[in-house]
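Morning F.,

Quick status update on the modeling queue. The single chain you submitted on Monday has been processed. Sequence for confirmation:
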Amino acid sequence: MDSDFQARVDLFIRNAETAHQSFKWQDPLNKRLSALLYAADNREYNAAAVEAALNCIKESTRFFSQFRGNTSLSIATMMALAENPELLLQNALDIYDRLKKAGFRSSDYLTIA
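Structure tokens below.
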């Protein structure tokens, strides 16, 4: 197996273990996706940055917001990987509102779109 590929697989495994330990109550597949996003960016998992992004989502959205649903860990991970997480979230919220006004139904999948 190619050494770069093996290194990336090992990084994903370490990231998945860190995500699993850090977010016990999250869905296992969402934790793996979070770890994979970090591995795809060739970075070690930063649970503190993801937790900070989750808190930012909670502070910036209402209680029943779709951004707090099943996809919250994935969104928080993308925010944690960004240079300006708050701006990324504000842009996502703005686009989400535009899509809803255009007739799209509110759902977890629309938050990812």
